[in-house]
Amino acid sequence: MRAPSILALASLALCACGVAAPLGLEEPVRVERAMLVPSLVTSENSAVAVTAFENPSAVVAHRQRGKLITGRASREAFALAVRLRAEGTGYWVLPLGAPDPSANDELSFEATLSFSPALAAGVHTVELRAVDRDGRAGAASTFPLCVLGPVPDNLNVCDATIAPPIAVLSLAWDSDVDLDLEVELPDGRRVSAKRPATGSATRAPGAAFIDTDAGAHCAHDGARRENFVLDEAPALGRYRVFASLFDACGERQVFARATLHRRALGPTPGSYAQVETARADAQLLAFNVGAGERGAHLVTEFSLP
Amino acid sequence: MNQRSLRLFALAALAPSSAFAQTRASAEPDDIEVPAVVARPDAASAAPPPDATATSPTPPADEPQRASTERTVNELRAMVEQLSSRLARVEQQRANSAPPPRPTPEPPAYARIGSSPVFTTSARPDAYSLLDPVGVVLSGFVQAQHEWSGLSQDQLLQGVPLNRDRFVLRRARVRVDGSWQWVAFALELDANSVRGVSVGVRRAEASFVWRNPGQTSVPWLAVTAGVTEPAFGAEVGEGVRRRWFAERSNGSLAFFSGEADVGVRAWGGAGVVRYAVSVSNGAPLDDRASQSGLQGIDPTAHHDVSGRLGVDTADPARPWSVQGGVSFLFGRGFHRGEEATKPSIEWRDNNQNSMIDAGELVAIPGRAATPSYTFAHWALNADLALRLRTRAGLTRLFAEATVASNLDRGAFASDPIAAGYDLRQVQAVAGFTQEVTPYALLGFRWDYYNPNSDFFEDRRGVIEPRDQGAHTLSPLVGLSWPNHGRLVFQYDIVLDSYARDARGVPTDLSNNLATLRVQGDF
Asked: Could you read off the pLDDT of A26-67 as tens digits, one per residue?
């Protein structure tokens, strides 16, 4: 009896004990200041529960960081567990905060969520559970969250009855450089970072516009993408797409990919979808910097209708 | 045994008198030598030697002479038996009272190399190579290893790779020593790849030495200036070349991220007493590449003062020795001020619609610079080590403990200005190494470090103490080719509270570490 005990203690000491603390960058959602726990014992009849929560917006942008969920849990709870239902490898667990005297001393929480770029665009379900002193999770409180994709779609991914733009030309690249998307319209005018829209207002109805100037002045935002959006009633004809390397920002080269996304009918009557219809790749080297419009690299061209 | 047989044969052949033998035995009990020629005091001794008798024919009718011969033979037989038993007794006594084997004489304090007497052994007891005829000692070693860590992830965190399962060149060092009657110097360069390849100075010191003629390894007084070791505790001064454990204990690494600092040190000893006092910048030089802008640069005019008073009973004539001491350190740390900032605009997406709405743009005014501050830090330390050489090999037991305030400079960077209170540290380490023949070694070390004994956190609205301490259990096994190479495997079991369980309560983090290291020396 003694020998097995000693063996058990020795094996316990030599095993890779402890709780792993992965960054969780592969997870679809991350929660700041929380630990990723692979599994939880759940009990729908548990005495602890999330009693209230507040979600300011049901829509999150692609790769959004810092989405705040606040709320309260019952006084007996110890921690809050958060995950996207049926996604990821576990729950994010964070300790509960101070009691709220205005709510019967229920324990407050603040969960700050960040969303993975690999998370599929569409509606997901966020699951909140309170955890008791024995590590058992109570009943789930859920709410839907619509995650947008990197290409503008007028929230079509959240509500299929909303029509996406007629066409979106999206240029994405792989390095932290100041690369500008330039599009030559059928009438010969150019839309670029200097003139991002055809109309007076960038997002005026019927206007064609470039949504952002990513990496401007080498201030990198991580997006590495610019979109040329053709909303209602675009000019018909041939569009030529250029990539202009304004500043290499110390990089030697950059690979860029242009994709064209067109409006299509959805599977059900009255619904729409956005589908990718074409793509083209380009490589720009550092010595292409500063060539301006005349030196911009022709990536692809497309025609409407 | 052969010598003993020859002596008995000589006794029988020469037939000494029993009286003479007994006199000699009582006068010189340890002397077992027998004279080759002795006088014959009585008539019986007139008989021819036994061998001669045996070879000569005896007259058959001479009965009285035959009786006399038999009597003489019987007497001789009795005497031989008596002497045999006495010889056995004397040899047993000698074996019991034999003095311990004389130790191998200590190598000379210095050797003449070229035209200068160089104190090779006292300056570098672990050096194996002499650069002749320049008159200096050249030595070096390489430590390459593979690590496995429970913390390893193939990710980056703020630009720093988190992978810990990797090959590492931990140390590659070349050292030159010169040591003469009054002066000594040492220069040691290091290269490693711990945080990217880096090359730096590990030691660059010049010393004035007042030598003790009776004790070659420790001078009366030595004053050393340059990049040298602070006088504090035992671990910092323990040579990384001879240390079996892969690294110093966590606490020692937190107090001194590197073993060297720029300063001046006075040290020496008399008899078993050892002393050392140092004044240094208080910015230890980490041999690993820098991760912050101020590493190795002292931002304050205040120097660290440290000292150690101890004993060392090491004596080659004894199989055991004791080393121990108490140390102190005091100085000032640095709280970094902030640079002035320009006015800026911040967008706070309050409704989280990813668009700028009314009230979401906030003006951040420019802010004036804030001054830097210094704060006091101090530490007290005690260390003890026992060495015992047995037939199995050298056994070494060691223990060391430190209490400190605001001294963490390598792990959690104590900053009482930011924390609002003094941060207390506790460090302890104990363990042993056991040589198993000169070619193998076993060891075990326990190490505890708490960077902030007063750390609290808010859980469920309750301020609760949170233990930041970590215990590390480090068994190791090693193979050695004396003076030329080592192969060591060490497994660090780290028990801490750096993770959280499903309740959000701190629990042990999976951060055990295994190290397989090969070391080559010259």
From this structure: 899 999 989 999 888 888 788 899 999 999 888 998 888 889
CA dist B148 → B162, B193, B250, B512, B513 (Å): 12, 16, 18, 8, 6
| Domain encompassing residue A68 | 20-147
Number of domains, chain A: 2
Min Cα separation B459/chain A (Å): 6
Q: How far is CA A146 from the centre of its chain?
A: 10
Best probe of the B interface among A9, A12, A14, A19, by most B CBs < 10 A, is: A19
- Rounded Cα–Cα distance for residues B10 and A124 (Å): 109
Minimum Cα–Cα distance from B508: chain A residue: A18
Interface contact A101, partner B, CB < 8 A: no
Q: How far is B512 from chain A (nearest CA, A)?
A: 6
For residue A273, being part of any structural domain is answered with yes
Residue B185 contacts residue B177 (beta carbons within 8 Å): yes
Instruction: Pick the residue from chain A with its C-alpha nearest to B502.
Output: A135
Asked if residue A142 is part of any domain, the answer here is yes
CA A91 – CA A84 distance, rounded (Å): 9
Helix (H, G, I), strand (E, B) or coil at B46: helix
Q: What are the pLDDT digits (tens) for B402-457?
A: 999 999 998 888 999 998 999 999 999 999 999 999 999 999 999 999 999 888 88
Q: How many CB atoms are closer than 10 A to CB A249? A: 19
B477 touches chain A (CB under 8 A): no
Domains annotated for chain B, with CATH where assigned, are 2-96 (no CATH), 111-337+372-521 (2.40.160.10)
